[in-house]
Amino acid sequence: MDTLTDTAAQVAHGYITEKDRYLARLKRIEGQARGIHRMVSEDAYCIDILTQISAITSALENVALGLLDDHLKHCVAGAIQHDGAEVEVKLKEASDAIARLVKS
């Protein structure tokens, strides 16, 4: 590989191969959020709104877990292969992301 290709490979994010799938999932989540907004606007039953909030929360958590998995498989594994010094940074990023996910 040439230097430009090496640099591009290091810059590309792990989710890039699944980008269209993530974008489609996020578009569905946007639609769910608009639906919740409409439900509140139309004075829907509170439990129905909470059910939809639960669904959108679960969908976002699934996206987050997928991105975390991609980070571990691509970014952390890439750091191990290409630049051992970056491994601790990438692991810390993953650990911090997990902590944020668990707190929410």
UniProtKB/TrEMBL annotation:
GO terms for biological process: negative regulation of DNA-templated transcription. Signal peptide: none annotated. GO terms for molecular function: DNA binding; metal ion binding. It holds the Pfam family Trns_repr_metal. Gene3D superfamilies: Metal-sensitive repressor, helix protomer. Keywords: Copper. PANTHER family: COPPER-SENSING TRANSCRIPTIONAL REPRESSOR RICR, TRANSCRIPTIONAL REPRESSOR FRMR-RELATED. Belongs to the CsoR family. This is Metal-sensitive transcriptional regulator. It comes from Leucobacter weissii.
